[in-house]
Write a structure and sequence with these properties.
two-stranded antiparallel sheet; alpha/beta; single chain; Rossmann fold; Helicase, Ruva Protein, domain 3; 9 strands; seven-stranded mixed sheet; 2 domains
Amino acid sequence: MQRVQPNKNYGQHFLKDKTVVQRTVEIIKSLHHAEKLIEIGPGTGALTSALIPEFIDILNCIEVDERCVEYLHIHFTELQNKIIHKDFLKVPLEEILFPSATIVGNFPYNISSQIIFKILEYREKIPNMIGMFQKEVAVRIAAPHSNKEYGILSVLTQLYYDAKIAFDIPPGAFNPPPKVMSSVLILTRKENPLQVNYPLFVKVVKAGFNQRRKMLRNALSQVAPPEILKEDIFQKRAEQLSVEDFVELTNRIENLQ
């Protein structure tokens, strides 16, 4: 079978730099314990080939592109019955993740934020994630408050995970080279996350950042009871609030409803 050509519709940029592969695998080895390992979008197997010697007994791959599935089956016979030919965003993960699994991969850039949201949905079963993202997305996820990159994705992710950029990757490490830098991002689940009504938390965070230039008294006027909108915290903008501040604010709103 001929080499698979990257498909723009799938947002494919196949990794080819062996140094990047090795550095990523070392990070995975340092964080992984007894849980399963699930690779999203293995493509033609650059990362997969380095994972097989260490993790073949617990490794599964999820790949939407039929051409890549065929390529992997031909070139990596160890992966028989270990490739799930589906769209990760549409896969019911309950059984696949049982009892828990670390998520890894060179994620398609066009769905990387959606992958994060799905990881958050299944956070109780996903202790770690090590993934390659467009750098600006990785920076956004890991951004601290009072930073211009800090936003909805930052707050929702950091409620449950510690986020850290491990290293940057130049365009030439991929085929075809993307027009931007990439980064390996590490998410490590917090042992004792703050307790909050998560659906309400999401509503508060989204309302705050959807009008991020406005003070919270205006941005949250449809979410918070009017009697608390004069409090000091509502004189701030969303990007000035830490995750802890958003949790406290959400709990306060819930108690007054």
